[in-house]
Write a structure and sequence with these properties.
By secondary structure, this protein is α/β, with parallel strands linked by helices. The chain is 30% helix and 18% strand. The structure holds S-adenosylmethionine and iron/sulfur cluster.
């Protein structure tokens, strides 16, 4: 199959689907305090429309689907969507990125519907600070969500932390220590997207700096492998399977050359790169009666137009907030 290979030889096998731009948190790096004006319901792709796009994508060689948002678990019927996507021939893996707060309610059902694993955002282990960062969230809820995901077998769980100077950078060793309990703890560089870019220069902390701080506190990290966008290391003194720490350094060390993903936004745009404003509308064609081949052609166009690199340092995207694209 060659239709999923882009102009630069990258094979696109991974589709990230934003199922909603709504969220029950307002994380400071992702949204303004007032939230983001939500897309009207009629503009959001219906589940049957998402399923048609994923089916077409599967015929092109997409093998992995990640559901994201906004907060994917605030959308009603999400378990049914997971079940439907898991049933699509060619899709090997359905995963989900979540703030964890609703996992106590949904983890078990999601696992039964065919979800493989979850990534959970966790930026602080201190209740007050967790609240300050997420503005509306509770650390207890997210920790209960993590426990529920473990119990449901949605493992290995990746915990994602965005590190911000003067906000949570003093917690990197504590967060990294969670890797001893079998989580892969991933440190994500803050990206200057949408309104969050205002504080960026004073708050940004590079992955290298985070790594140095972890090594100072917990000893040398042993390099293990590259895993998608993440460079994965092991904490010293841990055995195989435990102690994994990942760094996603999109700003200081872009992974564009090996990027294998495209996105579908909640309002029905194929977005070849998170950080480029290029979008191809699929919602109007779907609603105007496009055939499966026509949907497939739009996906091929998305793959063809995938840019070589994101140029984030010079040209931060302002067209949408992270929650609107699907992080
Ligand atoms: N609500 C879910 C969550 O928080 O995990 C899924 C959507 S969220 C947009 C997906 C990921 O994007 C989260 O791990 C979040 O930390 C990350 N994120 C959001 N804004 C970011 C930014 N400006 N820079 C880096 N990562 C960001
Ligand atoms: Fe919501 Fe996730 Fe954005 Fe936080 S990072 S505001 S949980 S979408």
């Amino acid at each position: 199959m060659t239709e999923n290979i882009d102009r630069f030889g990258r094979r696109i096998t991974y589709l990230r689907v934003s199922v909603t731009d709504r969220c029950n948190f307002r994380c400071i790096y992702c949204m303004p305090a007032s939230g983001v004006r939500s897309c009207p319901h009629a503009e959001v792709l219906r589940y049957e429309e998402i399923i048609r796009v994923v089916r077409a994508a599967a015929t092109l060689g997409i093998r992995k689907v990640r559901l994201t948002g906004g907060e994917p678990l605030v959308r009603e019927g999400i378990v049914d969507l997971v079940a439907a996507i898991s049933d699509i021939s060619g899709i090997d893996e359905v995963t989900l990125t979540t703030n964890g707060s609703l996992l106590p309610r949904y983890a078990e059902q999601l696992a039964r519907a065919g979800l493989s694993r979850v990534n959970i955002s966790l930026d602080s282990l201190r209740p007050d600070r967790f609240r300050q960062i997420t503005r509306l969230g509770s650390l207890d809820d997210t920790l209960s969500g993590i426990a529920a995901a473990q119990e449901a077998g949605l493992v290995p769980i990746k915990l994602n932390a965005v590190v911000m100077r003067g906000i949570n950078d003093d917690e990197v060793a504590d967060l990294a220590s969670m890797a001893r309990d079998g989580f892969q703890v991933r440190f994500i560089e803050w990206m200057p997207i949408g309104s969050s870019s205002e504080d960026f220069s004073s708050r940004y902390v590079s992955g290298d700096e985070v790594r140095a701080r972890i090594e100072e506190a917990l000893g040398p990290l042993q390099s293990l492998r590259e895993e998608g966008p993440a460079r994965v290391y092991r904490l010293s003194g841990t055995s195989a399977g435990a102690g994994q720490i990942g760094f996603i350094s999109t700003f200081s060390s872009p992974f564009c050359a090996t990027c294998n993903r495209i996105r579908l936004t909640a309002d029905g745009k194929i977005r070849p790169c998170l950080l480029s404003p290029i979008e191809i509308d699929v919602k109007e064609p779907l609603r105007a009666g496009a055939t499966d081949d026509e949907i497939r052609d739009l996906l091929i166009e998305g793959i063809d137009r995938k840019p070589l690199g994101h140029g984030l340092a010079s040209d931060a995207p302002r067209d949408r907030q992270m929650s609107q694209i699907g992080g």
